[in-house]
Design brief:
It comes from Paralcaligenes ureilyticus. By secondary structure, the protein is an alpha/beta fold. It has helices at residues 42-50, 72-77, 95-106, 117-133, 149-162, 179-194, 207-213, 231-236, 238-251; strands at 4-13, 16-26, 31-35, 57-62, 65-66, 80-83, 167-171, 199-203, 216-221, 224-229. Bound molecules: adenosine-5'-triphosphate (ATP).
Length: 252
């Protein structure tokens, strides 16, 4: 059984069919990338996976359970965490405070006034661990709003990781970043995938990130699956080159 099974999902906005009959399976431990030109339906597809949109047709099975009608918060509770194109952090809080919020939510402590010493120690330990995984040591007491895009993104990804997800959905993690930050973010994702054995679905425009990281790639054009395969298969796919990669080379 795959961790995620998407069966023929479609999304209609009035007359417009933004996503049409898309199916894909993601195995446990896989890093699956979704690419496609502007307007191909990537974000709409992501919104269906995370529960922000209900598919017009089709269904989604996550970890053995049909989650097509589940609201986003129920999916999160069942192990699906998502980051956004625009970083979703509390800019006026420090890195440590941001991560602490996510850890406390996960530990069910957020609304508790009294905590045992042991609970407090467990929270601190997990926060420290996430600061280290995110390579944020030395920056943990800085306000997130003052940090680089890369460190903000890393904080956001660590907040998602605090939820101990089975599946992490990353929406354009390198959006708006320069070369060095893009490289650092790709390294972070690779570490999460390899050492934390996380299953990840990634939407990204930056082809260097995609081809370096992905185990498999789904290419969308005009809302439909054009091709699916390993990075080598996609790089060699004639229809992908014509419809998408070729278009980029022409524009380059
Ligand atoms: N809420 C909405 N209402 C109506 N149309 C929408 C809505 N969201 C997206 N669309 C349309 O659906 C199509 C797919 O858009 P979507 O944002 O999913 O593409 P995308 O591949 O993520 O594009 P980009 O790479 O530019 O982010 C587009 O034609 C878009 O205008």
């Amino acid at each position: 059984m795959s961790l995620l099974e998407v069966h023929n999902v479609s999304q209609h906005f009035g007359e417009l069919v933004a996503v049409k009959n898309v199916s894909l399976n993601v195995e446990e431990g896989e890093l699956h990338a979704i690419i496609g030109p502007n307007g191909a339906g990537k974000t709409t597809f992501f919104n269906m996976l995370s529960g922000f949109y209900q598919p017009t047709h089709g269904h989604i099975v996550f970890d053995g359970i049909d989650c097509t009608a589940m609201p986003p918060q129920t999916r999160v509770a069942r192990g699906m965490a998502r980051t956004f194109q625009i970083t979703e952090v509390f800019r006026e809080l420090t890195v440590r405070e941001n991560i602490r919020v996510a850890v406390e939510v996960t530990q069910g402590l957020r609304l508790k006034v009294f905590r045992s010493r042991q609970q407090a120690a467990e929270t601190d330990e997990r926060v420290d661990e996430l600061i280290e995984i995110g390579k944020l040591t030395g920056k943990e007491n800085r306000y997130v709003g003052e940090l680089s895009h890369g460190d903000q993104r890393s904080t956001e990804i660590m907040m998602a990781l605090a939820l101990k997800p089975k599946l992490l959905l990353l929406d354009e993690p390198a959006a708006g970043m320069g070369n060095q930050e893009t490289y650092d973010t790709a390294l972070l994702i690779r570490r999460l995938h390899r050492s934390q054995k996380l299953t990840i679905i990634l939407v990204e425009h930056d082809m260097r990130v995609i081809f370096n990281l992905a185990d498999r790639i789904t290419v969308l054009t005009e809302g439909e699956v054009l091709d699916q395969g390993t990075p080598d298969e996609i790089a060699a796919s004639e229809k992908v080159q014509v419809a998408y990669l070729g278009e980029q080379h022409e524009g380059a």
